[in-house]
Amino acid sequence: MSLDFTLSRRQHELREAIHSLGVSVVRPQSLAWDRAHRIPDDFLRNLVMIASSMGGGFAMTPGADPPAANATGAKKPSAANVTTAVAAEQMAWADGALLLSLPGPGLGGPPIRATGTPEQKARFFGMFADMSTELKWGAYALTEPGAGSDVAGIRTSCRKDGNHWVLNGRKCYITNGARASWNVVFATIDPSLGRAGHRAFVVEKGTPGFEVGKLEDKMGLRASETAELVLEDCRVPDENLVGGEDSYQSKEGFMTAMKTFDNTRPLVAAMAIGIGRAAYEYARDFVKDNYVLSRPVPRYAALAERLARISRDLEAARMLTWRAAWLADNEIANAKEASMAKAIAGKSAIRACIEAVEICGAEGSIAREHQLLEKWFRDIKVYDIFEGTGQIQRIVIAKRLMTNLRTF
Ligand SMILES: Cc1cc2nc3c(=O)[nH]c(=O)nc-3n(C[C@H](O)[C@H](O)[C@H](O)COP(=O)(O)OP(=O)(O)OC[C@H]3O[C@@H](n4cnc5c(N)ncnc54)[C@H](O)[C@@H]3O)c2cc1C
Q1: Would you say 123 and 109 are in contact if contact means Cβ atoms under 8 Å apart?
Q2: Residues of the domain holding 159
Q3: Closest CA to 97 of 148, 39, 147, 58
Q4: Cα 222–227–229 angle (5° rounding)?
Q5: What is the DSSP string of 64-87?
Q6: Ligand 1 center–CA 257 separation, angstroms
Q7: What is the CATH number of the domain that holds 184?
Q8: Are 324 and 338 in contact (CB under 8 A)?
Q9: Any catalytic annotation for residue 315?
Q10: Which numbered atom of ligand 1 lies nearest the CA of 216?
Q11: Which atom from ligand 1 is nearest to the alpha carbon of 143?
Q12: 38, 154, 169, 302 - which has most CB atoms within 10 Å?
């Protein structure tokens, strides 16, 4: 196993491009988007065009670009997950809600990519090839009232009826769920079967019986759409059962959901680090600008020491995140590492935002167009909630440690 933290030229260029965009265009509008609860479609359309002119996008699709076999049949490792982590950190540094609002399959992509049939991949990914006239999103609908962390406890039901499935239930907190062209919806044939009863369906917009409920008014990431979805005798054709019926043996339905997390947890970790770093940099510059003349009085030293701790923790979280992403790129099981990255990144970034506000005093809590610290403080908390809370990550890690006693 090689150990190399050098980013490729393409990864550097991507990071630089997103950084410039963030400074010049994204951050100046970030607070306005937050207040409007929306990022304008025109802005997203321009972004999609810039992304495609850069050769296929900002690589926001974890698990994409699977390793290709060369002439000898040997697989060349993909770098898609590491590239995505690098890009996601930088984009969240600019605006976390923007990243979640990007058109494309979003979190709905990984389960189809992992277990979808070739026809499903062609149908449901093909629609994103041209978004010049219409923006399109995919979404991932697993959570429901009473079943967030307890994924195995979902109650949305699915019943076979001829060459259709009939779905009934309610999903909540679904990112881009209202505007999505399709949602990957998880349901159960029988709740008493637990994970073995789970099925995943692509439910297309406009399917009779599928309705959008309320749009949530959130504390942070307010420009990102979060929707409730209602399924009432919603008839979904057989061909939309992700992977087809044969793939649902034993725990496979649940595994589809979990495979998604192994790819997306490092991505969410990277996003948290981006926001934590933004807060850290703001506080660092604030201290330099406001306290440098008081050096070496104890106050400056104490603040510098706090900044050093924040920076250290974010850097450690980034290393774990890149490693989890690298394992995914090399098709090595990464559930434990993905959870470790998510757990440490969420906590480190929350601490970074809290401490940054404290370091800046009252000024840190004031909202202004070019002062986004209070916004990052509101945005960051959810990174320790969605894609599995911190407690759930620790449960996943503990299970892996206790069932596999190999320590490295
Ligand atoms: C902005 C936003 C976007 C989201 N986007 C999506 C999306 O696109 N798709 C989707 O499906 N979901 C989405 N979610 C839902 C998210 O994944 C859930 O909120 C999350 O899994 C936590 O579930 P819960 O809110 O029901 O909390 P609960 O599961 O009720 O947890 C409440 C508390 O109990 C703790 N807890 C729970 N179980 C245990 C245990 N066994 N041991 C110890 N502590 C425990 C938790 O850690 C937490 O602190 C989103 C949520 C938000 C806020």
Answers
A1: no
A2: 138-247
A3: 39
A4: 175
A5: -SPPEE-TTSPEEPP-HHHHHHHH
A6: 14
A7: 2.40.110.10
A8: yes
A9: no
A10: 1
A11: 11
A12: 154
